[in-house]
From TrEMBL:
InterPro entries for the chain: ARM-type_fold, Nipped-B_C, Scc2/Nipped-B
Protein name: Sister chromatid cohesion protein
Key words, A-Z: Cell cycle, Nucleus, Repeat
Chief location bin: nucleus
Domain of life: Eukaryota
Lineage, highest ranks first: Eukaryota, Fungi, Dikarya, Ascomycota, Saccharomycotina
Naturally occurring in which organism (per UniProt): Candidozyma haemuli
Length: 458
């Protein structure tokens, strides 16, 4: 057995050899050396191409019993060769390897594979641009027989791209949302390329794209904004239908990358609004998508689900509290739906809190029930505070809301607000820092919530 230093040196030699094989397979035309390779007895099979032989060598070093650096080098070389010989991507050994890595491999290895895909797609993007330029400049419109029969280089590569994307779009979208580090740019770049080349289904990608506008990484955010704008311009209704799902994904993404301070990101909806605000109908659908998420299921006994709903509501109301609405009608529409939520679930919840906390028999005073009441109260109180913040900021009198109806548009309300007052959202009153394992700390929020709901209904 060799020393650790010897093993390390041996592995580095293998890595260099794999890199060399990758370059030979990608950039060199080796079929002319077939006779020499056959005489060298390297295992070249009858009717096997030299490229296939090199791929077999490389695949051997992708096995799990090899060092990570060796496996990484092997996969990089495999992807490099396949990028220049695209049919190799669809061979059974390669597809089996890629499927295994996306199912069980490390995060870094998945990103490495997507880097290889990106190189291939970038080459296709460049070739596609050249083909389009040649077609536009050529006056000869004769039928290309290879294209007609589906055997042209471009047709084959398109088929490979479609197959790869169909197989791995799911894992790629998940990787986009794993973190906001520099590594996250790789799957996001993959998403950008497949959208640009037209191989991706916008319906599948839209929720993730919109959610990525909430990224703290400015490059990711910029790519997502441009992709969302492109979807909106080409498939407006498709974007509209995906907002609710996108908002949920955005909240979970921000919780993953920002931890307990996820709510500090208040620029997300502003980014989305820049796109939808160009169209009256889209603005309305955008607000209705948000309004559907204002519902608090006070009958839920699932604490984790209730906490997720609370986090989503807090994230969205903080974003809405600083959104520069372009008309009073939009503000009134939000207030209208807030009023409905508060007067239904809010009043029922306030009664439930009052009867539970004031119970002489101790009914409902279990830790689990108190935790649920606390989380539901936080959610509903956030809606109450948003209602107060927006009505004060835009100076919306109660008389307007008494007659407002979404089904009866008021042309005057479509005018741009004359003046907007900056009103701070009282986030500290939601007591988001309270540990749910300490029910003795719930009292002040319960009191604040019940009082706020009573004041609202007076």
């Amino acid at each position: 057995m060799g020393t650790p230093e010897g093993t390390k040196d041996h592995n580095s030699q293998i890595v260099k050899l794999l890199q060399l094989i990758g370059c030979f397979g990608a950039y060199c035309h080796l079929e002319g050396l077939r006779d020499s390779l056959e005489k060298a007895q390297l295992g070249l099979r009858v009717d096997e191409t030299i490229t296939s032989l090199l791929m077999r060598f490389v695949l051997h070093f992708t096995k799990e019993d090899h060092n990570v650096s060796v496996r990484t080098a092997a996969i990089k070389s495999l992807l490099l060769i396949s990028s220049h010989h695209p049919k190799m991507f669809l061979s059974k050994p390669v597809m089996k390897l890629l499927n295994t890595e996306f199912e069980k491999g490390s995060h870094r290895m998945k990103v490495t594979i997507l880097e290889g895909f990106n190189s291939f797609l970038s080459m296709e993007d460049e070739e596609s641009g050249k083909r389009n330029l040649e077609e536009s400049c050529s006056s000869d419109k004769k039928l290309d027989v290879d294209v007609f029969h589906g055997t042209s280089h471009g047709y084959i590569n398109d088929s490979v791209c479609s197959s790869l994307i169909q197989s791995f779009i799911g894992p790629a979208l998940e990787l986009c949302l794993q973190d906001a580090s520099s590594l996250s740019l790789v799957p996001v770049r993959f998403l950008e390329l497949i959208m640009k080349l037209g191989f991706a289904n916008p319906k599948v990608c839209a929720p993730t794209i919109i959610a990525l506008e909430s990224s703290p990484n400015k490059y990711v955010k910029g790519i997502a904004f441009n992709l969302h704008k492109d979807i909106f311009d080409k498939h407006e209704s498709l974007a509209d239908r995906n907002y609710a799902e996108a908002f949920k994904i955005a909240v979970n993404y921000n919780k993953r990358v920002n931890g307990d301070e996820f709510w500090k990101n208040v620029s997300f909806l502003r980014s989305v609004y820049k796109i939808v605000s160009r169209n009256y109908a889209s603005k309305k659908r955008f607000i209705l998508s948000l309004a559907r998420l204002f519902t608090v299921d006070i009958s839920s006994g699932d604490l984790a689900a209730s906490a997720n709903t609370r986090d989503m509501i807090v994230f969205l109301v903080l974003n809405l509290s600083v959104l520069p609405f372009s008309s009073l009608e939009e503000v009134c529409l939000i207030l209208y739906h807030l009023d409905r939520s508060i007067t239904h679930e809010g009043i029922d919840l306030a009664d439930k809190v009052t009867s539970t906390v004031g119970s002489n028999t101790g009914e409902g005073m279990s830790v689990e029930n108190l935790q649920l009441l606390f989380v539901h109260s936080q959610s509903t109180l956030a809606l109450v505070y948003l209602r107060q913040t927006l009505s004060a900021a835009y100076a919306v009198p109660s008389s307007i809301m008494e007659t407002f109806s979404p089904s009866r548009p008021d042309i005057e309300l479509r005018q741009q607000p004359k003046a907007v007052t900056l009103v701070d959202f009282p986030l500290e009153n939601l007591e988001m820092e309270v540990n749910l394992s300490r029910p003795d700390a719930f009292g002040s929020l319960f009191t604040r919530f019940v009082t706020s709901v009573k004041d609202f209904t007076v």
